[in-house]
Amino acid sequence: SVGRAAWLSVFHSVAAFNNAGIDVFGQGNSLLPYAHDTGMNLVTSLLIILGGIGFFVVRDLWIGRKTKRYTLHTRVVLAVTAVLLAAGTILIKITEGTSITWLGAFFASVTARTAGFATFSFGEFTRAGLLVMMVLMFIGASPGSTGGGMKTTTIFVAFASLRSASTNHPPEAFRRRIPEEAQHKAFVVLSLGLILVIAVSTLLCVLEPEMGMADILFETVSAVATVGLST
After folding, report:
1. Residue of 69, 68, 73 whose CA lies nearest to 56
2. Which of 49, 123, 129, 136 lies in disulfide reach of 231, CB 3.0 to 4.6 Å?
3. What is the pLDDT confidence band of residue 128, given thresholds at 50, 70 and 90?
4. Average pLDDT of the residues in 17-32
5. What is the mean pLDDT of residues 202-227?
6. Which DSSP state fits 21?
7. Dist CA 181 CA 2 (whole Å)
8. Are 50 and 58 in contact (CB under 8 A)?
9. Helix (H, G, I), strand (E, B) or coil at 155
10. Cα–Cα distance between 131 and 129 in angstroms, integer?
11. At what angle do helices 38-53 and 102-111 cross, to 10 degrees?
């Protein structure tokens, strides 16, 4: 009915924008019945991305829509988000082959950023595909957003610092110097995140010996990054 359709639309729009990943379709299938529905996939993806880039970025994009002048934070977030979405889509499609469509690979790349919806069963993914998903989940969304994970800016600063150390050039972001304090914080956050994943995974290996290592790691990263996806 119209009323039921409107209620489902509102509920899932909120769940998508807030990276909650909760659905009320029932039967525990998430969005699997809509795997080939282009409209559902693209609208949900757009809401997830808008919620994941953060309110600061959305505000900056709105204010600077005429002048095209954006803050360093906005530039970093948009650049890293674009790279992760593109790289994630391509790698998932390559690792899963014909078992997933390009639309499905794109949605998986989007939802891994702590959204939690699924249009294909991750229990049927290859280990390579699960590894790609785990990396995306671990990185997560951006600061000041509705998503979790270690954050896109943290990864950017860490890579900029590593590049600086290997080339003997000062770490920069769009011709702006990155302070040492920001570099230290980035490595601390990543280190604590990795330690937590390793510790919890080890504990689950003891408590759930019948589970495979890939499944345990996937569940752990999904929980630590507050994604909600499962194999």
Report:
1. 73
2. 123
3. very high
4. 90
5. 95
6. -
7. 54
8. yes
9. helix
10. 5
11. 30
pLDDT for res 171: 87
**What would the two tokens of residue 131 be?**
């590894």
Tell me the two tokens of residue 180.
């040492």
Determine if the pTM surpasses 0.90: yes
Placement of tokens 């808008």 in the chain:
50
The tokens for 166 are: 């290997």
Return the exposure string of 154-176: e unless at least 16 CB atoms fall within 10 Å of the residue's CB, then b: bbbbbebbeeeeeeeeebebeee
- The one-letter code for the residue type at 80 is V
Beta bridge partners of 176: 173
Q: Tens digit of pLDDT for each residue in 40-59? A: 999 999 999 999 999 999 99
Q: Where are the alpha helices (DSSP H) in the chain?
A: 2-17, 38-53, 55-63, 72-96, 102-111, 127-139, 152-167, 180-207, 213-224
Q: Do the Cβ atoms of 77 and 190 come closer than 8 Å?
A: no
Count of residues in the chain: 231
Cα(173)–Cα(3) distance, integer angstroms: 49
Mean pLDDT, residues 112-132 taken together: 93
